[in-house]
Amino acid sequence: MLYLVGLGLGDAKDITVKGLEAVRRCRRVYLEAYTSVLTVGKEALEEFYGKELILADREMVEQEADSLLKEADVCDVAFLVVGDPFGATTHSDLVLRAVKLGIPYKVIHNASIMNAVGCCGLQLYNFGEMVSIVFWTDTWKPESFFDKIEKNRQNGMHTLCLLDIKVKEQSLENLMKGRKIYEPPRYMSVNQAAEQLLAIIQNRRLQGEEPEITENTICVGLARVGAPDEKIASGTLQQMSTVELGAPLHSLIVTGTMHPLELEMLKLFSVDSSSFENNACQKTT
User: Fold this and answer.
1) Distance, CA of 109 to CA of 91 (rounded, Å)
2) Which of 14, 269, 196 is nearest to 280 (CA)?
3) d(CA 81, CA 90)
4) Which of 35, 190, 206, 232 is most solvent-facing, going by the fewest CB within 10 Å?
């Protein structure tokens, strides 16, 4: 049996009772280590679960899945995912591979950022399509995510922006030379995401457009959701470029049309209550 077990968002104790029972009876336990991270390390998980964990990076999951699934038809194997198991498409691929090999599977769900963002007070059914904001490079600066955020806002919907994570990435030079040398991990901050959005706004204006999203659009920055030191800040997009939220992981929400109750909740986390109120009134029901 292959178990796909969600670990939640905080620390070792966020696993469900059902998930912990599954982990403890498995012969091999893999920890997915590239789509998200917990606030504690592998050692803390091993101590609490009472099991040795095998780190599964992107290369293993996407290119060597057969080794991960080896003998799962005759013994129990667990694949642990921060958040919920189906928060990333690669995990659906793992299930499809298991099915083709005749391996039964079971999913044990948990909280993910996709529903935990309700902690800021925005109502989940008012969210539109979710987007990912990637790190720009000197030669690659995509803007497609901005168009999706604009479309959501035109429809009155909020947008949850998942921010880029770079783990076990190679430089172009090392990749071309086939050297297994990896760059230090990088986690996009709310500041960096806001700066890229502000740059796109300026680019669009230079092209004669007036974007639906501006420097004064109300946004929400979230950090380490589900952890004891969770932090939430609401304010303008411009304010999000300088707000201090600390260590990763970060997420950003660009608001759409807000219900008065949502607005009242966001005021609890406002960076500057006066400027927040002046701008928020532009987009409420």
Assistant:
1) 13
2) 269
3) 11
4) 206
Q: How far apart are CA 98 and CA 77, in angstroms?
A: 11
Q: Which amino acid is at 193?
A: A
Structure tokens at 44: 């803390």
- Residue 66, helix vs strand vs coil: helix
- What is the chain's pLDDT, residue by residue, as a tens digit (285 residues)? 999 999 999 899 999 999 999 999 999 999 987 777 777 888 999 999 999 999 888 778 777 788 889 889 899 999 999 999 988 666 888 899 999 999 999 999 999 999 999 999 999 999 999 999 999 988 999 999 999 999 999 999 999 999 998 876 666 666 676 777 666 788 999 999 999 999 999 999 999 999 999 999 999 999 999 999 999 999 999 999 999 999 999 999 999 999 999 999 999 999 987 766 666 555 666
221: tokens are 């920055």
The owner of tokens 């803390």 is 44
Q: Which helix (H) or strand (E) holds 97?
A: helix 89-100
What is the DSSP secondary structure assignment for residue 16, as one 8-state letter?
-
User: What is the distance between the alpha carbons of residues 32 and 132, in angstroms, rounded to a whole number?
Assistant: 19
Q: What are the beta bridge partners of residue 231?
A: 223
pTM score: 0.90
